[in-house]
Each structure stands twice: as structure tokens, then as C-alpha cells.
Amino acid sequence: MAGVTFERIEGSDEAVVGLHAVVSAYQEVYAEPPYCEGPRDAAGFLVRARRQATRDGFRLVLAREGDEVVGFAFGYWLPADTMWWSALLAPLEARFVEEDGRRTFNVAELAVRRGWRRQGVAAEMHRILISGQGADAPGARGGARADRVRRLGLPEGGPGPVRE
């Protein structure tokens, strides 16, 4: 990880500019299996990410080596009226899915280019992304360490993002 610098960007205007910097990293990471995405998917990512950048509490973290973006992560607070939990195959307890706009910080994307994996880049981006979010944010508690992740359910429609 030597030589990698990190920048956290908050606020939708600044974040949208930063999102343009991550497209090449996105294309490289998501071209690999199991995603096998192409140029149309990358364009869709940018549209979706711009929309997400307007969400409350949006943060973007860029990892760079020199001028090259080697990783990125972003997230936002789930709103009180979120439909996030509604797509699960088996319903969860009401106390778990009731959002207030500050309970769950959604880490929407976290990606590292192949040459910089297994060096702590993802862990550092995650730490920077969620820092200051508060202990009551389940999405922020404990990070993404395998020993602290609990599978909550599977989404309808088969393969796709798993809400963990």
C-alpha cells in the first residue's frame, strides 16, 4: 500500500466530479468474473452513481497511486422510506428494517484494481468512508470483515447484490 493516498469527498457536486475519475477503475474491476461487464454497464454505473451522489450523507473515497485511481468506495444513509429491505426472499423482523435516515449507512460500492488488492487498500477506504458515522449505523459497525458479517437474506430474482 506504500505510495497509495486516500481522499474522502463529501457533497454531491464534488462527488460527481470525483465519480468521473473512477470509471476506468470500475471498467477494469467489473470486466472480471463474476461480473463480466462491458462499456454499456460502465455507462449505467455512472448514471446510477450520479443519482446516488444526491442521497443524504453521500461520501466518496478515492485511492490513488500518483494520478491513477486504484480503488474507490462510496455510500450514503438509507432514507426512512427506503425499499432496500423489501426485495429479500424472507422478511426480516420489523425492528431491523425500520429506518430513520441515520440508522444504516449503505456502502454501495467498494472496488480495488487487481494490482493493488490484498494490500489493505479496501480496508482503509472502508475505514475512511464510515469514519464518523456513529456506532448505531449497522452498515458501519465492524466493517466488512468476514468474521463480523452476518447474512441477513437473499434478494429476489437470483444473482445480484446480497444484503449482508
3D architecture notes:
The protein has helices at 12-21, 23-31, 39-52, 94-97, 121-130; strands at 4-10, 59-65, 68-77, 105-112. It is built from five helices and four strands; from the N terminus they run βαααββαβα.
Topology of this protein?
Elements: E1 4-10, H1 12-21, H2 23-31, H3 39-52, E2 59-65, E3 68-77, H4 94-97, E4 105-112, H5 121-130
Antiparallel strand pairs: 1-2, 2-3, 3-4
Helix pairs in contact: 2-3
Helix count?
5
Radius of gyration: 16 Å
Distance between the termini: 27 Å
Please estimate the helix content.
25-40%
Task: Assign the structural class, choosing from mainly alpha, mainly beta, alpha/beta, alpha+beta, or little secondary structure.
Answer: alpha+beta
> Biggest β-sheet: count, sense, barrel?
4 strands, antiparallel
How much beta, percentage-wise? Answer: 15-25%
> Which descriptor suits the 3D outline?
globular
Query: Which regions are unreliable across 5 or more consecutive residues at pLDDT < 50?
Result: 135-148
On the 0-100 scale, what is the average pLDDT? 83
**Multimeric organization:** single chain
Q: What is the β-strand count? A: 4
Order of helices and strands: EHHHEEHEH
Across the major sheet, the strand order is 1-2-3-4
